[in-house]
Design goal:
The chain is 41% helix and 17% strand. It is of the alpha+beta class. The chain folds into two domains: 1-31, no CATH class; 37-96, no CATH class. The protein has a three-stranded antiparallel sheet with strand order 1-2-3, with no helix packed on it. A hairpin with a 4-residue loop joins strand 1 and strand 2. It is globular. The termini are far apart.
């Protein structure tokens, strides 16, 4: 039987939890949700609308239809995802997605 030692490593983004087994290392969060441009646009439209506090994940889920996992992932990687999908924070996504 192999015992896995639990270690935490700090990265630029924050904390990454890793399972360490001798020479083999595996990231704990290999099953990260697949985030599309539309997912990020929906999240941003909800944010721009001001309809809810973005930390009220249940309400954000209700308004956007996104899963809890996707919302949390978008919150943690917000700036990176905006750059990746070239989404302008000043664009009028709220109106485009009917949040007004």
């Amino acid at each position: 039987m192999v015992f896995l030692e639990y270690k935490s490593l700090k990265s630029r983004i924050g904390r990454t939890n890793i399972l360490y087994d001798g020479d083999r290392m595996e990231k704990e969060n290999e099953n990260e949700p697949k985030i599309t441009k539309k997912d990020v646009e929906l999240y941003e439209a909800c944010r721009q609308s001001g309809k809810t506090n973005m930390f009220d994940i249940k309400m954000v889920q209700f308004l956007t239809g996104l899963s809890r996992e996707k919302i949390i992932y978008i919150m943690k990687h917000y700036s990176e995802l905006l750059k990746k999908y070239k989404i302008d924070r000043n664009s009028d996504l709220a109106s485009a997605y009917g949040f007004f």
